[in-house]
Amino acid sequence: AQSVAQPEDQVNVAEGNPLTVKCTYSVSGNPYLFWYVQYPNRGLQFLLKYITGDNLVKGSYGFEAEFNKSQTSFHLKKPSALVSDSALYFCAVRVYNQGGKLIFGQGTELSVKP
Amino acid sequence: DAMVIQNPRYQVTQFGKPVTLSCSQTLNHNVMYWYQQKSSQAPKLLFHYYDKDFNNEADTPDNFQSRRPNTSFCFLDIRSPGLGDAAMYLCATSRDRGTGDEKLFFGSGTQLSVL
Q1: CB–CB of A92/A104 below 8 Å?
Q2: Are B101 and A32 a contacting pair at CB < 8 A?
Q3: Low-confidence ranges of chain A (pLDDT < 70)
Q4: Is B5 on the interface with A (CB under 8 A)?
């Protein structure tokens, strides 16, 4: 079965410091991996995706993610966190042979303090 | 701007009283999805439409139904809401489903309360 796991319920970072939000996946075949962000009482917004090619993908708002096949990981990173980055972050895998649905991880609450 | 619009933003219904949530899109996407998201949990797919073709998830209760009268609109009907159905309901679209690299576009969601 296809799945993603986010091992941390919450990540706390000081503004200006680098941040990492972790994600591991389990898929059969090539993974299509995504990161979405959700601000309070809002829908999800696409940040970035990995399909193929460079292991480091860059996305919106200065975020990037590193695909690591040997570790089956797709961690989200940002060199310098902003208070406005505080939100709920979801890692997801696309199941293209099941209607293309996204399967989400359980989410990680990122809190960036001034 | 092209977008996915959900109405209403907040919906309150009574236990057992049917309720309908609506979603419209100006993206002209073929696929429309409905997700249920309970507090601070991962969104859970209920069903999706590929054009007019309805695809139900195996674990979606019969209490949940959907209609897609045309490309632009999709409705979620909850026939007899229970207290456990209180959640955020998210509508999403994608241009196609045949390849895995397409992102989903989400609406802002409808927060359903059941009294």
Answers
A1: yes
A2: yes
A3: 95-100
A4: no
